[in-house]
Amino acid sequence: QVQLVESGGGLVQPGGSLRLSCAASGSIFSTDYVGWYRQAPGKERELVARVTGGSITIYADFVKGRFTISTDNAKDTVYLQMNSLKPEDTAVYYCNLARPTRWGTKSNYWGQGTQVTVSS
Fold first, then answer.
1. By CB neighbour count within 10 A (0-12 exposed, 13-18 middle, 19+ buried), where does 89 fall?
2. What pLDDT score does 64 carry?
């Protein structure tokens, strides 16, 4: 069982930056997929960025080089550095950990989410 706690959200003006943090209660394994999703009002939850093996990353197209995902394995923490924020980035951001099982599937763990609001 893994517990994830997000922090770092808040209100920021367009063009500003935020860094989100996700602290895991237990170790993040090299085989885990950890990342960030977001959900805006009235929209589906969408992948923002994900990393596995500490280096293999996937970014959503809308990130366009503005966001960077990173991990600190010693601290069991995942970060999302968000630069050049736009109003359309406004959403609740969720930390996710997907852990492979012995059955070839993955168990998903979710944080409670942190609100990011980009507005002037």
1. buried
2. 76
